[in-house]
Specification:
Layout (H helix, E strand, L loop, with lengths): L3 H18 L4 H13 L3 H12 L9 H17 L29 H5 L1 H5 L8 E7 L6 H9 L2 H7 L12 E6 L3 E7 L8
Antiparallel strand pairs: 1-3, 2-3
Helix pairs in contact: 1-4, 3-7
Amino acid sequence: MLSRRACGAFLLALLALLAGCGVPTGQRGTEMLQSQAEAPNPVAMSVNAYRQHRGLAPIPVSLRLTQVAAAHVADLEAHYRRGTSCNMHSWSANGSWTPCCYTPDHARKECMWNKPGEITGGAYSATGYEIVAYYSDPITPERALQIWQQSDGHHIMILNRGQWYDNTWRAMGAAIGTHYAVVWFGEQADRAGD
């Protein structure tokens, strides 16, 4: 039996491959998406366990938002350079997406919010909201959650507090790499496999 970390790494590799190809279609594509749904997602499980501990409902894990998360983790691991004016919500010019320099003033927030529709070829068309964690040593789902809990902006998003109070998360996608973990939240349910 594979460890949670090995399962997460396998899922990340599979989803990164799918992210470069777009959302699979047809019977084979549906079978691939359903098999991904059955794979454990340790970051999503960690976020949902924390939400439940705080009295909140778990968020359904979205195959398509997980595809977006996996693509972004792969891009961050390969191309992101810390210490630039572009923060971790940015996307490089090294993929099948529109590059995006997300600055701390949120002036180009739409370039990140629109990534779910872009990465999934419109299959997940709602706005997406992302949290990212970085750790210099190999990151774990537990470490990522701890980083988000210690950041007011990320913590309130996970718990639907503050500016996120009126948002209802109906979908969540998550992925983890060596140093980065990513979670995407969306208010539209993901109908993949329906």
